[in-house]
DNA sequence: CAGCATCCGGGTGGATACTG
DNA sequence: CAGTATCCACCCGGATGCTG
């Protein structure tokens, strides 16, 4: 039985932030990448919006998902929900400071996506062509 | 029937990049935020790694998910797969230039997460306490 | 207008067993 | 060691109908 792989409980890796922090980052990305969060955050970037206004703005989201995602965003302190008890009722959603601060890194990722989308598409074409042919 | 909401087909928003681009950014985030991609990309940040090495490094990933995610990353041109036909076989995975370039915006998001994680947790506690009490 | 309740199909992802 | 194949549980998310 050789020691091809170390059986040490503590890996000889970078001393800090490699396991735990990665998890948290991953969890954040799971939230941010959940298909609607970013669309909502960006739609709210220009100022407060009402429920159906957001729905129209985003286009393609079900009201169920809009409700759920907004609730999650509110729970995380990224969005505020303001109810005006009129008839008909009016509810406004708005980014908090924390929500606005999220836009910067998200936009950075967006820049990356826009910049490299063509490269990715090309890579996919190449890969699919190679693996199927 | 009042005009509480504008029925205009073109919203008075930013002139460009609000619908289409958002979708692509969202799609990219869906890939990047798929629970394992970021962990893998970050694990590969220090250089090439072998299959089971990655598995141990990440810890908690099934080999099925590792295989699938690596294949997707390879398909997108973010990772290269190098086979050494020895016995036992050896396969190395390594970030491409494109893959490395992704680390910057992802790390930026990571910074944000680490910086604001406490705030988010606090907001959640507050929210949960309020809604349940 | 804003939002909840319910049903349900499809994809995600884990566990396990097997191959080269 | 580095996968593939299969089965299966879960939950994400859409459609619909109803409330205040």
| Main sheet makeup of chain A | 3 strands, antiparallel
Number of helices of chain A: 5
Give the N-terminus to C-terminus distance of chain A in angstroms.
42 Å
- How are the strands of the largest sheet of chain A arranged? 1-3-2
> What does the overall shape of chain A look like?
elongated
Largest interface: A-B, 58 and 58 residues
> Which percent range describes the beta-strand content of chain A?
5-15%
Q: What pattern of helices and strands is seen along the backbone of chain A?
A: HHEHHEEH
Strand segment count of chain A: 3
Unreliable stretches of chain A (pLDDT < 50, length at least 5) are 1-16
Describe the structure.
The structure is a homodimer of 133-residue chains. Chain A has 133 residues and is mostly helical. Chain A has 5 helices and 3 strands. Chain A has helices spanning 20-32, 37-43, 51-58, 63-75, 97-132; strands spanning 49-50, 79-84, 90-95. The first copy, chain A, has a 3-stranded antiparallel β-sheet with strand order 1-3-2. The longest helix of chain A is centred in the C-terminal third of the chain and has 36 residues, at 97-132. Residues 1-16 of chain A have low confidence and may be disordered. The structure holds a DNA duplex (20 and 20 nucleotides).
